[in-house]
Here is the input.
Amino acid sequence: MTDESGSSSTIFVGDFSDDHLTNKNWPEIEFRSPEDEAWYGVSVWEMCDSLVVSFNGFPGEYDEVYPPDDFKNSDEIKEFEERFRATSVQMQDHECSTVSEGTKVCATCPSVTGEVKFYDAIVVKVEREKHGRDEEGNELCGCNFRLYWNQGPFVNQVTSAKVGDICLKQEDNRMNPKVVSFLKEARRKLHGGAHQGDETEWQKILKKVTSAMRNHNLISSDTENHG
Ligand SMILES: [Zn+2]
Here is the structure.
């Protein structure tokens, strides 16, 4: 999760990352932590075959390491895949009109501990108020958004939120290439062995080479026998 100011930076350690996969056009990603099921802005990198998830704004000891052979079945891999998506972005006051009943959002919920955590919710009602302006002429939204929570401490309950509590989901659903290659490796490990398709071509060549060598040897030995 990022706000206006908190653009996340990706830190590369050593040569772990493949630079050709680091493309600025790929969306920033957020990750739903198995720890508390809340969404966090993250960066990902590879360490050996494992995927390391680094939480933006948290020290390295909070990094989570996922080995590719840690999944029991393809459902678990799918479930893990669904923990990643393009980072939701802080809703702006002037975007109020784009939010209505049924809009899926990611929002902070009232917390007893004072922690700011983000969970998925759906807008069930917007109690609109006439927008005002600040001294600089910027639009100010004072509307009240009623949210039904899909996750988090208020799951299946409705609470109220203001524009500042809400992040809008991104339509960009391209998956980060590092996550994609990790999932591919995890699926490969699960199903065991290398891709058959990759070997077939090489096996064909090997067969040709073997048979060519055999023929050559036969001819040579025949010639020798006759000599
Ligand atoms: Zn509004």
User: Anything to note?
Assistant: The first strand starts at residue 29 and ends at 32. The pocket of zinc ion is lined by residues 96, 128, 131, 141, 143 (CB under 6 Å). Confidence is low (pLDDT under 50) at residues 2-22, 194-198, 221-227.
